[in-house]
Amino acid sequence: MTWNAIDHSAVDRPEISRQAFGYPVVDNLNDIQARITDPTTGNPALGSRVSAVESGKVPTTRTVSTANGLQGGGDLSANRTISPVYGTAANTIAQGNDSRITITQDATKGNNALDTRVAALETRTGTERNSTAATALNNGAQVDVPFENSVRSSSDVTYASSIFTIVNAGVYAIESTVRMTAPAGTLELNLWVSTDGGSTWRRKSGWLGGLMGTVSTTIRLAAGNKVKVTALNTSGSNRTIETAAEETTHISLYRTGG
User: Fold this and answer.
1) What is the pLDDT of residues 159-205, one digit of tens each?
2) Are 183 and 128 in contact (CB under 8 A)?
């Protein structure tokens, strides 16, 4: 067996051995420090990461501005506070005790102004009437249907002699049903409106069919306008208007808007 001498010269020279294994050659500690801290001469990947992190930061020169009732702000070199500007002038904020805020609160009803409006809607029942008299409905004769019995009343409408007179102008929803007594026959029902105090009547809704019919309309009416319902029996024999039952011969007038 032959033993060859080992050349220790490369092992004894670290810079050569590091080069041999792919490490950069560093002569001294100052060189190492330069390579760590300077991304141009040190680790390029480290320099890139540092640059990326720095580029995502908000600069301290960036400012927060205020307007329209707010004050404060400033640049980001220190902590900043934004607060409201209270007052009565334009671009100021009203406080809870501001004298301009006049809506009062009620523990049981909440906003009083809103409660007043809701109550007004709830109590606006309109006018409802039905027929209680056995009005003759002779064959071929048209009659003004009487609605003698008041079920609900309102100050928006008055009633006299089968005619309703509008007191408060507005949009009205009107519905009426009339039934004549049996046996089977033909009933023509019409809803009329007069805008000249009753001299001229214009038909707004009509129905033709069997024993019971319904007419309805939604219409804007002025104060003084009049409303009535007529019935015409064409069954060939004399009849009467069925009474007493609200679901048969009745009328309702509701003011739904101003």
Assistant:
1) 999 999 999 999 999 999 998 887 777 899 999 999 999 999 999 99
2) no
230 CB contacts (<8 Å, ≥6 apart)?
Answer: 142, 143, 144, 145, 189, 190, 192
Residue 98: Cβ within 10 Å count: 12
Q: How many domains does the chain have?
A: 3
Cα(240)–Cα(146) distance, rounded to whole angstroms?
12
- What are the φ and ψ backbone dihedral angles of 18, each rounded to 5 degrees? -70, -40
CA distance 258 to 89: 35
Show Cβ contacts of residue 111 under 8 Å, excluding neighbours closer than 6 positions: 103, 105
Tokens for 117, please give them.
Answer: 């409006």
Q: pTM, whole model, 2 decimals?
A: 0.54
**Range(s) of the domain holding residue 81:** 65-100
- The set of long-range contacts for 58-67, using a CB threshold of 8 Å and a minimum separation of 24, is 67/91
Identify whether the C-beta of residue 173 lies closer than 8 Å to the C-beta of residue 256: yes
**183/7 Cα distance (integer angstroms):** 135
Kindly state the tokens that stand for 157: 């409408």
Residue 122 scores a pLDDT above 70: no
Helix (H, G, I), strand (E, B) or coil at 134: coil
Residues 131 and 252 in one domain: yes
Q: Do 87 and 158 share a domain, yes or no?
A: no
Looking at the structure, tell me whether residues 224 and 144 fall in a common domain: yes
Same domain, 33 and 147: no
With contact defined as beta carbons under 8 Å apart, do 119 and 130 qualify? no
Number of neighbours of residue 207 by Cβ within 10 angstroms: 18
Q: Which amino acid is at 255?
A: R
197 domain-assigned:
yes
